[in-house]
Automatic annotation (TrEMBL):
Cross-referenced InterPro entries: CheY-like_superfamily, Sig_transdc_resp-reg_C-effctor, Sig_transdc_resp-reg_receiver, Tscrpt_reg_LuxR_C, WH-like_DNA-bd_sf
Protein known as: Transcriptional regulatory protein TdiR
Organism, scientific name: Variovorax paradoxus
HTH luxR-type domain segment(s): 144-209
Alphabetical UniProt keywords: DNA-binding, Phosphoprotein, Transcription, Transcription regulation
Transcription listed as a keyword: yes
4-aspartylphosphate found at: 61
GO molecular function: DNA binding
C-alpha cells in the first residue's frame, strides 16, 4: 500500500523507545521519518540548510531535558516554519492544557500518550496535506515574484495603475505617455504575468501578498 502523500515526518523525543515505536508505525504505513533525541539535535539539523521541498510534519514531545518542546516550538514560530512543517505535540495527560495552548498559538494538533496508532496517523496525514498546500502557495508566490522581477520599471508602473482600476487614458495621463504605449505595456504585463484580465492580475498579486 502506498502512502496518501509522499511526505517526511520528523520525530523529536528524548525517549528512544518512543522514537523507535513511532518510526516503526510510520514505516508500516509507508511513511518516511527521521528522528532526533533532543530539541538541540533537531535545531542543529535545521541549521544545516533549508527544509526539504516536500510535505513535512513534526511530532514533538512537550517535555524533554534541556530545551523543551515548547521552547523549540516558539523558535520554529520565529523561523516561520509552521506552515511548511505543521507541529503535532506528543503529550502526557498533565501537559494537555499546555498542548491546547500551543494549538491556539499555531501548533497543528496534539496527541495524548498513550495514543491510538490510527488516530495519530490520521492527524499526521492531515498535517502533511496542510504542508502540501503551504508548499503550493510558496511555489506560487515564488513564481509570481520571479515574473514580477522580469517586468521593466515602466511595466511595473503600468501594472500598479491597471490593478487600481484606471483605464488606459488615465494611465497614459499619469505616466505622461501615449495611450498606445500603455496598451503595449499592458499587453506585455499580462503576458509576463500569465493573466488575461486586470481582475485576474489583481487576484494573482493578492495571492503574492
Amino acid at each position: 500500500m502506498q502512502p496518501l502523500i509522499d511526505g517526511l515526518i520528523f520525530i523529536v523525543d528524548d525517549d528512544a523507545s518512543v522514537r523507535e515505536a513511532l518510526a516503526w508505525l510510520l514505516r508500516s504505513r509507508r511513511l518516511a521519518s527521521e528522528h532526533f533525541g533532543s530539541a538541540e539535535a533537531f535545531e542543529q539539523f535545521l541549521d544545516q540548510g533549508p527544509l526539504p521541498e516536500q510535505p513535512l510534519c513534526l511530532l514533538l514531545d512537550v517535555r524533554m531535558p534541556g530545551t523543551s518542546g515548547l521552547v523549540l516550538f516558539d523558535r520554529l514560530v520565529e523561523r516561520g516554519l509552521l506552515p511548511l512543517m505543521p507541529v503535532i505535540f506528543l503529550t502526557g495527560h498533565a501537559d494537555v492544557p499546555t498542548a491546547v495552548d500551543a494549538v491556539k498559538r499555531g501548533a497543528f494538533d496534539f496527541c495524548e500518550k498513550p495514543f491510538s496508532d490510527n488516530a495519530l496517523v490520521d492527524r499526521i496525514e492531515h498535517a502533511l496535506n496542510a504542508s502540501l498546500q503551504a508548499l503550493e502557495v510558496q511555489r506560487l508566490r515564488r513564481g509570481l515574484a520571479e515574473r514580477i522581477a522580469e517586468l521593466t520599471e515602466r511595466e511595473r508602473d503600468v501594472m500598479r495603475l491597471v490593478v487600481e482600476g484606471l483605464p488606459n487614458k488615465l494611465i497614459a495621463d499619469q505616466l505622461a505617455i501615449s495611450v498606445r504605449t500603455v496598451e503595449v505595456h499592458r499587453a506585455r504585463v499580462f503576458d509576463k504575468m500569465e493573466v488575461k484580465s486586470a481582475v485576474e492580475l489583481a487576484n494573482r498579486l493578492r495571492e503574492l501578498g
